[in-house]
Every structure is written in C-alpha cells, then in structure tokens.
Design goal:
heterodimer; A: 396 residues; alpha+beta; Uridine Diphospho-n-acetylenolpyruvylglucosamine Reductase, domain 3; Alpha-Beta Plaits; five-stranded antiparallel β-sheet; 34% helix; B: 481 residues; Uridine Diphospho-n-acetylenolpyruvylglucosamine Reductase, domain 2; 18 strands; globular
Chain lengths: 396, 481
C-alpha cells in the first residue's frame, strides 16, 4: 500500500500516524532509485510524488524551490528557459536500474547523486540551500533557507542530503542554480592506456582552464559513444570565445599525450550525457558499483577488478569515480570492497538482486565510534526507526 | 550583554588537580595555568566579551588531543576549542570552568598532492599558509576570509568560513575532502579522505560549521585548485544603493558569474579609502568591486560586457584596474575594511546576516533608518553576489550605554535579515553573539532537533556549551526506541 499525501500537512499527518502506530515506511518519490542500497522491509510505502511543483524561482538570485516530488526533468526544463541549469549535473539511472518512474528532486537530493561536473563545481549536496522535512516523529523541520550563504546552526541540509530518507522525509527543497554556459567543447585523446589517460586528466584538471568534466573510457566503453579504442575526455564549458581559446591552449598543454580531437557543442553534450548516466554499462545484466578513490588510484582499482572478475568499467571525476560492472555475486562484491579499501576509497553497490543487497555491506561500514554516533543521530530524528529502516546499514 | 552559564563549582574547586592531570598528558609548555599567561586567551575577535579560562591546553598531536579530551570528559570539565582566536561571533570565548584547547601548535602541512589535487594539513595551519604552500605550482586554496593571514583551517572548518570569492568557488564546506575528528570521549574518527563524496551520511557536511559543538578537528584534507591565468578587478560607483543593487541583479541575470562581487556603501568607501588609498570614488553612495578571471583577452571581454551592464545604471565612474598592483590596492581596501573602520571608531560590531539579493535596497534603507534612530553610524560592506551583509556598527565600548545600543541595533538588523527571508549568519557563525537570536530563525522543535544531534556527539554537553544554542534545558525524548 502506498500513502501519497498531497501537501505538507498531509505528509505530517501521515508520518505522525505511522509514528504513533510504530509502522515502518518505505520512503520514496516515484521509486526510480529503489534498486539502490539495501532493500527496505516496510508495511507501507510513503511517496512524495504528489508533493509536486516549483514553488519559487528567482533567476537573478540563482535560487529555486520545489516540492520534493517534482520531476527533476520539469525543473531542468523550467530553468533552461531562463538560461540556467542544475549545476551538479544529476545523473538519471532509471535505465541502468530498470526503473519505470521518473526521478524527482527529492530522490536526487536524498541520494546525493552528482554527474561529471561534480569534479569542478561540487556535488548535489553543495547546491542544496534549504530543506523542509518531516522527521520520524512527524515534526516539521526547516534547515537552511533561500539564500546562498548560511551557517546558522547545524547544517541539517547536508545531513539529509544523501541520507536516503532514513532521517526525515523532505517536503520541499531549495537549490542554487547557475547560468548554463554558452558553449561546450571537449578534448578527446585516443588510445591512451588507463594510467596515461588519468595522467592526462590530472594535467587537464590541474590546468588554469577550468575543466568541468574529465573521464576515461576504455575501448569497450568508448565504443558506446562512437570511438574506436580508448578515449580520454576533458570538457570545457564557458562563453564561446573562451571555449575556443581554452580548448586550443589545453590541446597544446596536453601535446605529450597525443593530438586531441575537439568535440563540438552537440558532440560534447551527447558524450557527457552518456558518461553521466553510465551508458557504457547499460548493456549488462549483473551488478553495478561506484567506487570513489583519489583520482590517480582509479586505474589501479580498475585493473584489480578486471583481474578479479573481468569487470567492465570506466572512469569519471578525473579517474576518481570508478564505474564497475560485473557478476552480482558476493565474491565480486568482496573484490570491489577490497580494491576500494586498498586505495583508501569507498564503494556503493548501485545495482544487484535483493538477496545480494541484503547480505553485503552496500556502502562501507562505519567504524565503531562513528556507528554509535550514527545510531544516536538516527534515534534523534526517528526514535521508532520507522523511516526506511535498514536502507543504508542493517539495523539503522 | 549575553548571559553566560554558571560555572560548575565542583570543577572550579578541582582546578589544581585538573591542571596537574593535563600536565601529565602534555609537554611542559603545553599547559597554561598562570593568571597572567591565561590573559591572552580571554577573548577572540568579539572583544567586548572576556572571560579567563580555567586553563589552556596546547596539544601538538592528535593523540594528545584525544588524551586531553578523554581526561576532561572523565572529569566532567567543559572544553572550548580555539584556533587563532579570530572569531567575530565569540566562537572561542572561554568559560571560567572550561579548558581552552588551542590548536596553534598543530601547524604542519602533512601532504600536498598535485596529481590528486588535495592537501592534508593540521588544524592549526593558517588559511593563507595553505595557499602559500601550493602557490609555486600555481595552485590555491579557495575560501579566503578577510582574516586569512591569521585564521586557521580548523577554525574555518568550525565556522564554515567564506570569503570574497565564494560566488565562484564556494565556502569551506565545498572545498573539503575529509577531516580527522576527535570526539569528547577521545575517540579518533576519520571522516572522508582523499576522494570525493564518501558513501553514507554526510558527517563532513555536518561537522563543517558545527562551531566546535561535535568534536575537535585535528587534521583537514582540503581540495586545492589550479589558479586561473589571471584575474582583474574593476570598480563601479553609483549614485544610490538601489541602483547598485539593481546592477548586481543585472550582472548575475546576464549569465556572467564574476569570481567576486563586493558592495560598499558611502561610509565604508570613505573609511577604506582613508586606509588603503585604492582610488575609491569618494563622491559615490555605493560602489561595487567586480573581479573576473581568465586570460587577458578573456578578462577584457568579460569586463567590457560588465561595463556595458553598469553603464545602464548611470554610474558615477567605472574604473578597470590597469595592473596587478592596482588590483591589489582595490582588494587591500576591501580586505582591510574592518581595520579601516577600527581607525575611525573606537569599537565596532561586525554583523553577518544574509538576505535575498532582491531585498538589498530595501534592507539597506531600513538599516539606515535604524542607524539614524539610535544615533550609531553603520558602514555596510558585503558580498553582494550572495547577499551576505556585513554591517559594521560603530560604538564606544567604554560607554556601556553605547555598547548596549550597538548590540540592540545589531540584533534588530539580524531580525530584519530573517524577516525578509534571510538568515542570522552567512559566514561568521552563531557563537555567543547570535546565540539568543536563534529562536528568531528556528522553531523550538528545530532547535531541539539540532541539540539532539549535538547530544549524539556530546551527551554531557561539555563541548563549547555556551555557544550556538540558547541556554534552555533540553527535554530528553520520551519515546526513544
């Protein structure tokens, strides 16, 4: 059974009733990300899908507020009309996860999902200015606001972003938006080995040209976006003459890695949308992982997993985000965890059967001292444990 | 004056034993207990408030911090973390029964990695120290609070400090990868690391800006960025605050995001020009400092477009910096603004509210009215692009009536910020200064939620308990699972 309140008061009433009856709720928007992390065992679903609509938009202030269930695409279309965009370039994993529903703002913020631009312009969490949310006792909480700078009190916005609905149910979210750059251009270096590719990306990101996307695709992944052999991509987004100038300068700076082809605006848009949504991994059936490490360790992780289970993979975020596909088995998951740990990084099981998701650590377990704090913070928001129980950690 | 909690008599009575306990944990010079030597720690950047602490501990390693906190926790002694003591909100104000844990001896840079673009530094490294350590390679650490010569990264994390270039590069929270946190029990927890976006709860985001309420940060992994090819500033002077405010909206609305967009009103222009001799226009009512980055050709192109926009607002003058020296002078005036106001007034309070930028002209008009009504001068300096106001209220601390008026005016200005849709503090933190105004912005339920998060980290409320939250007892949850 799905409860779908139509306004904030209804949301408060719904959660209050669940609190009083101690009824666990699976919190979702349209359910496009139900396949992430651990499966939730709950008597009822609580959907924010009917809390929809942009409630405030001030382009000259770079601020937009929308109810949590607003489809992300609606917001993107609305700000695009005013020449603006959602800066963190949120990905859409619907195809990857085989989900039917359209993703909502609440889902993107709840999962803190960010795309290629994260490497230069911050994550989704960096652009959340304010939230209204209902905690597990049915109490309305506001944090942040509608201004760009705010350090008043503890930053509950950041704590809720990426908390996957386990602490509170967001009803409305305010985000910062930024102007859409006039033009995009992408340098594409062909045929580099992974280590050299990441070295080129490191040089690009360490250049003064404000590179806003940096990915490495081995041959099989590169074929999906029309390249033969591996391709190393570095994106520049800016006013047209700056893109022309900077791509030229960067091509010269990267000459030791070969002569870069330059993808124009349309080709850039297509290539980066594919990277953003992990399209190179769409064809397989098995497990999907995201491993986050320091960028130079990306090729090491990829090589280890290739060896362990013939992983298919590609790298975003300058090498620091390793996308991995492989068999959805505990053995493969153990190899992912080991590779991430060896490089001092973290992992997330993004797709897998419920049985696997329920039995493994889908994200790194917390050290004991932090685990105690986590349990205590969870109890401070949701004392009866009714909101998405077990979604991130077993027993939390 | 904002009230301070009653000192714990049982702690004051055990002072000698507590000092002896600290001496057993730290090198000889790492414990300060003599009256005269405690004096420098009695205040911070909010100098109107003073309180000599019970003692000062100056640890040199994370292990020492952990040992000190474990000991103080066991003894039930309150703790006030301190970096360089530059807080403008009283974030490092001691308490009579508290031990100040000063982080200034942990001032080493532990690692710099250009390939992966991070630096690992101890909490007592100064903000500018990070940039200086990486500037030879063309890199920098982006947040640049005005106090950056002195303030320490640990304090920046505590306050989520901003600066003049946040519009482009974000505040402290947006430029961190990880911290090493010591809990009040003396446990050491690594949060984040050398990578982006650790899976799990965003403890890094919560700890940043938590004002020493949750633990003590001993090490910080910051992102370092390659600097642009160049940067150049221009000055635009206008006949009223209103048109300057409209000009800010038009620039942002045009799709150009300058790396900095600073606003000064007439009193601020005069104070800063007398100090910096930067060529600020003394006949203007309002002035913008606008900075862009890129190659010289890119700078020219952007500044030309910005000049075109400014020209629509009947400017008194538009002046583009012709040299790096001129740009430096322009910034010297802005960054020295607080000192400059200090030269024309015996004392000042620096407010820090944020407002929606569309409300700028209205809010400045009302601040002017309030200033006239109470007879205290106010100079306004702020980050216009993000609506972060810094009204500087000038008063005389030797006159208690003048100080009381200044505090009242400050509170009224911050209430106004909240009323128009903004917040109490954009980058300086709540500290002691704005503690009792928190109910203006937050409901009782919201404050209790925040306080319960603090309780999860610090159940006995030993960490900085005189700051951030009004001194009302927190009722424990009845229905805890």
């Amino acid at each position: 059974m799905t409860l779908a309140p139509t306004d904030e008061a209804g949301l408060i009433a719904t959660v209050t009733a669940a609190y009083e009856a101690a009824t666990p709720l699976e919190v979702l928007g349209n359910g496009s990300k139900r396949g992430l992390l651990r499966p939730v065992q709950a008597a009822q679903n609580l959907s924010t899908a009917r809390l929809a609509g942009v409630t405030f938009y001030s382009p000259q202030e770079l601020v937009l507020s929308a109810q949590a269930g607003t489809p992300l695409g609606d917001i993107e279309a609305m700000v695009a009309e005013r020449g603006q965009q959602i800066t963190s370039e949120p990905p859409d994993f619907s195809a990857l996860l085989g989900a039917q529903g359209t993703q909502t703002l609440g889902g993107v913020v709840g999962a803190n999902l960010s795309g290629p631009r994260r490497v230069a312009w911050g994550a989704t969490r960096d652009h959340v200015l304010g939230v209204r949310a209902v905690n597990g006792r049915g109490e309305l909480l506001r944090s942040g606001g509608r201004v760009l700078k705010n350090v008043t009190g503890l930053d509950i916005c950041k704590l809720l972003t990426g908390s996957h609905g386990t602490l509170a149910v967001m009803s409305e979210i305010t985000i910062k938006v930024l102007p859409t750059p006039e033009r995009r251009g992408t340098l594409a270096l062909s045929g580099l080995a992974p280590g050299r590719g990441v070295a080129a990306l490191s040089a690009a990101l360490g250049s003064p040209y404000a590179v806003s996307g940096a990915a490495y695709l081995p041959a099989e992944a590169a074929a999906v976006i029309g390249f033969s052999g591996s391709v190393t991509l570095a994106r520049i987004e800016d006013f047209a003459q700056s893109v022309a100038y900077r791509t030229d300068k960067l091509r010269a700076d990267l000459a030791e890695f070969g002569r870069a082809e330059i993808l124009d605006d349309a080709a850039s848009i297509a290539a980066w949308a594919a990277v953003r949504d992990a399209r190179p991994l769409h064809s397989g059936e098995g497990g999907i992982w995201r491993v986050s490490v320091r960028p130079s360790a990306g090729p090491t992780v990829a090589a280890a997993l290739e060896k362990a289970f013939c992983a298919k993979w590609f790298l975003d975020w300058g090498g620091g985000l390793v996308w991995v596909a492989g068999p959805a088995t505990e053995a493969a998951h153990a190899a992912v965890m080991a590779a991430a740990k060896d490089s001092g990084g973290t992992w997330m099981l993004l797709r897998g059967p419920d049985s696997l998701r329920a039995s493994v650590a889908v994200i790194p377990p917390e050290p004991a001292a932090l685990g105690r704090i986590t349990a205590s913070v969870k109890a401070a928001f949701d004392p009866k444990g009714i909101l998405n129980p077990g979604r991130m950690y077993a027993g939390v | 004056m904002i009230a301070q909690p009653e000192p714990k008599q049982n702690v004051l009575a055990r002072r000698a034993a507590i000092v002896a306990g600290l001496r057993a944990l730290l090198p000889e010079s790492g414990v300060i207990a003599e009256e005269l030597r405690l004096k420098p720690y009695e205040t911070d950047g909010l100098a109107a408030y003073r309180q000599v602490p019970l003692a000062v501990a100056l640890p040199e390693t994370t292990e020492q911090v952990a040992a000190v906190l474990a000991f103080l926790h066991q003894e039930g002694v309150r703790v006030v973390p301190r970096g360089a003591g530059t807080s403008l909100s009283g974030g490092a104000l001691p308490m009579a029964d508290a031990v100040v844990v000063g982080m200034m001896r942990m001032n080493r840079i532990l690692d710099i990695n250009y390939d992966d673009r991070f630096a690992l530094v101890q909490a007592g490294v100064t903000n500018i120290g990070i940039t200086q350590a990486v500037s030879d390679a063309g890199f920098f650490y982006a947040p640049d609070p005005s106090s950056q010569l002195a303030c320490m990264i640990g304090g920046n994390v505590g306050m989520n400090s901003g600066g003049a270039h946040c519009l482009r590069y974000g505040v402290t929270a947006n430029n961190l990868l990880g911290v090493k946190l010591v809990t009040i029990r003396g446990e050491v927890i690594d949060i984040g690391g050398e990578h982006l976006d650790a899976a799990g709860y965003d403890w890094l985001g919560l700890i940043t800006g938590s004002e020493g309420q949750l633990g003590i940060v001993t090490e910080v992994t910051v992102r370092i960025l390659r600097g642009p090819e160049g940067a150049r500033a221009m000055l635009a002077a206008f006949r009223s605050n209103e048109v300057a405010g409209q000009c800010v909206d038009s620039i942002i609305g045009s799709g150009i995001i300058p790396v900095a967009l600073e606003f000064m009103d007439r009193p601020a222009i005069h104070a800063c020009e007398a100090f910096a001799h930067a060529g600020y226009p003394l006949d203007a009512e309002a002035m913008l400092i606008i900075e862009v980055e890129g190659s010289v050709a890119e700078q020219d192109w952007l500044l030309d477009r910005i000049k075109e926009i400014c020209a629509r607002f009947d400017p008194i003058s538009l002046k583009v910096s012709q040299s790096p020296e001129e740009s430096l002078a322009i910034w010297k005036g802005r960054k020295g603004a607080f000192g400059a106001v200090g030269r024309i007034s015996p004392d000042y309070l620096c407010m820090d509210g944020t407002i929606p930028t569309s409300r700028l002209p209205d809010v400045l008009r009302r601040i002017a009215d309030m200033s006239a009504a109470c007879g205290l001068q106010v100079a306004n300096i702020f980050h216009a692009g993000d609506g972060n106001l810094h009204p500087l209220i000038m008063f005389d601390a030797n006159d208690p009536a003048s100080f009381a008026k200044a505090e009242k005016l400050g509170a009224d200005i911050l209430k106004l910020c909240v009323e128009v849709g903004g917040c109490l503090t954009g980058e300086h933190g709540v500290g002691v200064e704005k503690r009792d105004l928190m109910p203006v912005q937050f409901s009782g339920i919201e404050l209790d939620q925040q306080r319960r998060i603090k309780s999860a980290f610090d159940p006995e409320w030993l960490l900085n308990p005189n700051k951030v939250f009004p001194l009302i007892p927190l009722v424990p949850l009845q229905h805890a699972a």
